Amino acid sequence: MIELPQGAWWDWDIVAWDPGRLCLGAGHDVSYAHGLELVFSDPIFVKCPAAFHDPVFRQPTPDEVRLVVRQVGETPPVLVAFEADAGGPALVSGLLAAGRLDIVQGTVFRYWREDLAAGERLAPWVRPPV
Prior knowledge:
Elements: E1 11-18, E2 21-27, E3 33-41, E4 45-47, E5 51-58, H1 62-72, E6 78-85, E7 92-98, E8 100-109, E9 121-122
């Protein structure tokens, strides 16, 4: 089970996703910045909406564990399940399997800024103005 640090983590989206890493960003409003990241290293199974709200993280059900094991051939080191509001009429279920999970706190701006304080950084897609 994931234990998140104290904070207003109701707005979530996928910040980065490549073969070696899936990063979810969270905050009270991710339009301009986020303050929490769940970084899944070596993701091997991903069922997750691109953006969602108010997730409730839980232990995977036995059926979810069997599904992942059937897909990847073994029980992964990290297996995370959640229910969340993705904007539809019902909650959606998320299921993520990976080699490792790191929980990172710190302000990540989603727009160009030159005056970053200690611990602040820019989102990976932010580039300086031309």
